[in-house]
């Protein structure tokens, strides 16, 4: 189903992300907050890498940077050979749509749309015809085990089924990188294990990054990047 992508790994080189502190009523700037401090890592094609750390450790910041939703204050992120900070805002958006799939803890499905329509949403921007979008979305739902649920809306699906729809949607544009933020956080253990099986399966020809607090989820990854106070722990 997926096309083969370059084997060049995802490379995060000495990445720092700082945010300016809020200003007081006199206009005096507050202390700069360093969310990530000189973090480096590589994520190869075919691997599932976990990102762990307590709240405030920088997990979400790292995921947003890898997804091209934010830009580093210093350092560089390359996704399969492309330096994200060298792209314009419009180019970053186009690159993200084509190369990066996001899976969120709370699914972020559109309640008025059916499962197949939700999966097809990213394909509208790709310029696919309606019939092509439906065909692609149907095949993806079949691949994640939801062949009988194509025309069900999110409200009539279980949590596990909704997460599988979200994963199918993340795969719609055949991304080289899939980033999952607490993908099992809303699921029971058995359903979470099924979702982890699916994320492991799709890693065969892409890179998968999973941020989680859950020890079992992290144990299913190939290795874990541990963060604390914005720094990578050895």
Automatic annotation (TrEMBL):
One of its GO terms (molecular function) is ATP binding. The keyword Ribosomal protein does not apply. This is ABC transporter ATP-binding protein. Keywords: ATP-binding, Nucleotide-binding, Transport. The lineage of its organism: Archaea, Methanobacteriati, Methanobacteriota, Stenosarchaea group, Halobacteria. It comes from Halorubrum coriense DSM 10284. Residues 10-234 form the ABC transporter domain. GO terms for cellular component: membrane protein complex; plasma membrane. It comes from the Archaea.
